[in-house]
Amino acid sequence: MVLVTPTPIPTEKMREIELPVIDLSVGNRSEVSKLIVKASEEFGFFKVINHGVPEDVITKMEQESFKFFAKPVSEKQKVGPANPYGYGSKTIGLNGDVGEVEYLLLSTNSLSISQRAKTISNDPVKFRIGFGEHSDSQILTLLTSNDVPGLQISLEDGMWFPVSPDPTTTTAFSVFVGDVLQAMANGRFVSVRHRALANSYRPRLSMAYFGAPPLHARITPLPELVCQYRPSRYRAFTWAEYKKAAYSLRLGDSYIFSTPWQ
Ligand SMILES: O=C(O)CCC(=O)C(=O)O
Ligand SMILES: [Fe+2]
User: Fold this and answer.
1) CB atoms < 10 A from the CB of 158, how many?
2) What SUPFAM superfamilies does the record point to (predicted)?
């Protein structure tokens, strides 16, 4: 998962591309499902609009998050340490990973979306890695951010594609296929590698919900996606097993592609 970028950012290859935006309010369900499947196969990423979460709820969450992160550290620490839920701040510098985030982890229940908010420090350097290259380990991630650009996805080795905060879709949610969904889809969907760059002018704030399976559920490729011509590519595993492995190594390693899971 994520690593850091060994090469300085300005020399990296970057290309604009039109990424799928799926309107959840139009057409019938099966049309929408087809678009989701196509985007998950081609990109492991798409945005959704008209998703039913009211704009003022998103705006309010963003305002409250900014207020929280603007407080002195001693105040922020009053919510408790980030393990399992609370405030944390981290330089993701171990083992070559690069990144710097401040975050607030909140607990959730099955009816509400958990939030994870981060602000990035204002370092004098123009652009730097806020959250290094990685894939998300869970099933899928729903993410919304303020209007500060910086999110990028990698569809081919060494090539970064910016995910622009389109002014017409400010309340869009970005959806990322995660490692577990890639295994469940027997490799038909891809767990997309991504990162977030920060700049020193305006803080980037994002709020994410990570949808993960229950700790001890057995994860295997869905039988409908396994056949003689496309045999099972992944062995059965539990989220507890996968999570332990994924969090014990580098952010940038894509565990789902490594041999123990195949
Ligand atoms: O800050 C962002 O927009 C991306 C964060 C991210 O990729 C993550 O938390 O997994
Ligand atoms: Fe991520």
Assistant:
1) 9
2) Clavaminate synthase-like
Ligand 1 within 6 A of 131 CB?
yes
Neighbours of ion ligand 2 (CB under 5 A): 136
Q: Give CA–CA dist 251/262, Å, rounded.
A: 20
Catalytic residue status for 204: yes
DSSP state of 55: H
CATH: 1.10.3470.10, 2.60.120.1440, 2.30.40.10, 2.60.120.330. Which one for 2-68+126-213?
A: 2.60.120.330
Complex ipTM tops 0.85: yes
Which residue stretches of 77-225 are H helix?
179-184
Q: How far apart are CA 111 and CA 117, in angstroms?
A: 19
- Looking at ligand 1, which atom is closest to the CA of residue 103? 9
Ranges of residues in the chain whose predicted pLDDT is under 50:
1-8, 10, 110-126
CA of 195 to the centre of ligand 1 (A): 7
Q: Which residue from 118, 179, 192 has its CB within 8 A of the most atoms of ligand 1, so it is best to mutate? A: 118
Q: How many helices (H) and strands (E) does the chain have?
A: 5, 15
Phi and psi based region of residue 127 (left: phi greater than 0; alpha: psi -120 to 50; beta: remaining) = beta
User: Among 251, 176, 256, 246, which residue's Cα sits nearest to residue 3?
Assistant: 251
For the entire predicted model, the pTM comes to: 0.81
C-alpha to C-alpha distance for 238 and 185, rounded to whole angstroms: 15
